[in-house]
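Anyone up for a design puzzle?
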């Protein structure tokens, strides 16, 4: 009975435990129906779990139909031309949700036999990818999040302006910026549906890009991936490729005029990506036709690494800056993206940005907006415009009299139309402290509650600052039995982070040359007579002295330092010393007296080296020290005062030095 009770208890606990498991592992369920040759898709997804304080969570969708077609709609429709079974995939992104993206599970699609002619619904629209007017374009289903997968659609076409009925060539994708030490992406799989074949990019690296025609109208476009397109001058493919560590290349043939083809790329994010959250990474697409009359193109897509899926984001380009070359004239570029996820259009959008005290608000310059509007100062009544309102530590970018559709608004099928952004540049007041620069934004649609974005953080690269050290050491004691009590000269160098404003580590390496020490071992009075060169001498005095000359190499593997201000710094650490030259000499000094034949006495001195011993790398010791520096302690010259204690010999000494950090 007891055994049966134990089994039932175990089963009950296991069942209860299974019930509280998070539902992140539940895959997206694909449902479909086919009628009159038209296949309609729906899905079943796990319930969303709202992040505390965030807007209502929602899903965005990316459907891959398995025949080269795709859609970003919630419940899309599609017409399959063939009858063979294929696999459809759904990638759902959970916005404002605290869980993981629902896993994707391919669904076999079987088209029933039918003789009726497909009748496309009147409200259906084919996805439009080529919004920039070029031959290639990229679009992602979401921003890259560590631990989540990401899909990218690589579209290429033979537009009518090319003037070619058929086109052969090569397309390539460049990713994993060399700006980052770690790879951010792994291309797990590429699905091609038009017999594209893998190729080699190396033979094409010396191919030059031709400039895009200058008469093209200006385009402003914001999407989930915030892509950006530019080609202002001739650029060699090799120059473009050297900025990336990874690439994939495909060969295409028989691309008909106005035909559009798509590659579907499944990217996995690496664990190292987490270190660069909020950084902006690039992926570049390349289009190289065989026909030299057709322009070669590239397309840049910028993606922000995120910690959660949120369409309202603040982005700082170049989040890692070189402090050595940063001054008051350096410009930083910020971009705030927003999306109206409501059920109706927004006529006013107020983007309030917190401005760090290191910035000069008078230098703010709006560079791009979506919707594209003019400044309200030059707008007529009720014209769409943007107004900049500056506060003490904030600035408001207010879009007025615009029409920004809501994502849940009836009749809105293009998620891109519900998005907007404002991009601006700003300069520093003066050279800032080497500390993180943090900014954030609050977005208000009409009179709704504000939506707060992430914090865009700019950081300075550590950089290295070499330095030179010249010093002079003097003892507290005068006991010459220990050479450490001798005066010494120091010369060497240091290595530390460049211009630190907080605690930092510093390493040092230098030579110390100690003044020769003399230790009188014994001294005796008048002694016996002796003969030197057959001349009789009387020994008046004999001194036995030990001389020592030492040169050491000193290594400070690490010391902790802190710059209290621009002019005062302090530090403490350990010093490892090694005697690289140690010379010990035993000397006998005689004071002699001799008497001539006429009885005159003459005194003389005689020095005799009784013993001499030279040693190299003979002795090592560890000392501890603390010091203070005065001067330009971050970068430049300063003077230091260092107290050292040697526990091996119980020796205390002091050193003063001059250092210059570069």
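Challenge accepted. My sequence:
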């Amino acid at each position: 009975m007891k055994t049966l009770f134990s089994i039932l208890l175990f089963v009950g606990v296991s069942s209860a435990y299974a019930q509280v498991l998070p539902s992140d592992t539940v895959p997206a369920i694909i449902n479909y129906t086919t009628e009159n040759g038209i296949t309609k898709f729906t899905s079943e997804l796990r319930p969303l779990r709202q992040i505390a304080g965030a807007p209502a969570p929602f899903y965005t969708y990316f459907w891959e139909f398995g025949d080269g077609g795709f859609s970003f709609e919630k419940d899309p429709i599609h017409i399959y031309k063939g009858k063979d079974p294929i696999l459809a995939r759904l990638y759902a992104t959970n916005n404002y949700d605290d869980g993981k993206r629902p896993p994707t599970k391919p669904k076999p699609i079987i088209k029933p036999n039918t003789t009726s002619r497909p009748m496309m619904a009147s409200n259906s629209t084919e996805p439009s990818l080529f919004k920039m007017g070029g031959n290639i374009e990229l679009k992602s289903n979401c921003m890259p999040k560590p631990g989540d997968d990401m899909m990218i659609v690589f579209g290429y076409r033979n537009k009518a302006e090319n003037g070619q009925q058929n086109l052969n060539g090569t397309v390539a994708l460049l990713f994993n910026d060399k700006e980052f030490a770690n790879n951010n992406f792994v291309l797990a799989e590429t699905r091609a549906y038009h017999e594209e074949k893998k190729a080699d990019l190396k033979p094409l690296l010396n191919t030059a890009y031709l400039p895009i025609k200058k008469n093209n109208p200006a385009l402003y476009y914001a999407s989930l991936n915030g892509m950006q397109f530019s080609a202002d001058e001739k650029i060699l493919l090799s120059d473009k490729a050297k900025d990336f560590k990874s690439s994939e290349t495909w060969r295409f043939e028989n691309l008909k005029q106005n035909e559009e083809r798509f590659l579907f790329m499944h990217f996995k994010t690496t664990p190292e990506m987490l270190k660069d959250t909020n950084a902006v990474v690039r992926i570049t697409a390349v289009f190289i036709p065989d026909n030299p009359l057709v322009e070669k193109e590239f397309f840049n897509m910028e993606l922000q690494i995120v910690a959660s899926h949120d369409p309202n984001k603040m982005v700082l380009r170049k989040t890692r800056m070189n402090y050595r070359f940063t001054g008051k004239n350096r410009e930083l570029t910020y971009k705030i993206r927003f999306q109206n996820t409501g059920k109706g259009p927004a006529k006013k959008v107020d983007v309030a940005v917190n401005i760090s005290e290191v910035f000069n608000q008078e230098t703010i310059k709006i560079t791009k907006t979506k919707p594209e509007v003019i400044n309200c100062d030059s707008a007529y009544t009720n014209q769409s415009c943007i107004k900049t309102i500056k506060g003490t530590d904030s600035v408001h970018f207010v879009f007025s009299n615009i029409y920004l559709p809501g994502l849940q608004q009836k009749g809105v099928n293009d998620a891109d139309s519900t998005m907007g952004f404002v991009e601006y540049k700003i300069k520093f007041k003066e050279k800032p402290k080497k500390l993180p620069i943090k900014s954030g934004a609050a977005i208000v649609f009409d009179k709704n509650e504000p939506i707060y974005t992430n914090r865009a953080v700019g950081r300075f690269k550590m950089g290295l600052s070499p330095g030179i050290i010249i010093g002079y050491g003097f003892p507290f004691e005068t006991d010459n039995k220990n050479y450490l009590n001798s005066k010494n000269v120091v010369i060497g160098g240091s290595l530390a982070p460049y211009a630190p404003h907080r605690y930092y580590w510093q390493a040092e390496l230098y030579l110390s040359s100690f003044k020769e020490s003399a230790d009188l071992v014994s001294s005796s009075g008048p002694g016996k007579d002796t003969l030197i060169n057959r001349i009789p001498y009387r020994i008046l005095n004999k001194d036995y002295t030990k001389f020592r000359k030492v040169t050491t190499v000193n290594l400070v593997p690490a010391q902790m330092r802190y710059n209290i201000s621009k002019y005062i710094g302090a530090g403490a650490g350990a010093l490892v010393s090694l005697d690289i030259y140690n010379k010990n000499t035993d000397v006998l000094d005689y004071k002699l007296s001799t008497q001539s034949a006429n009885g005159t006495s003459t005194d003389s001195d005689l020095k005799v080296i009784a013993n001499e011993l030279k040693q190299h790398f003979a002795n090592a010791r560890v000392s501890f020290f603390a010091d203070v520096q005065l001067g330009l302690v971050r970068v430049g010259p300063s003077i230091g005062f260092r107290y050292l204690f040697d526990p091996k010999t119980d020796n205390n000494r002091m050193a003063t030095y001059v250092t210059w950090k570069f």
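A detail worth pointing out: The longest helix spans residues 2-19.
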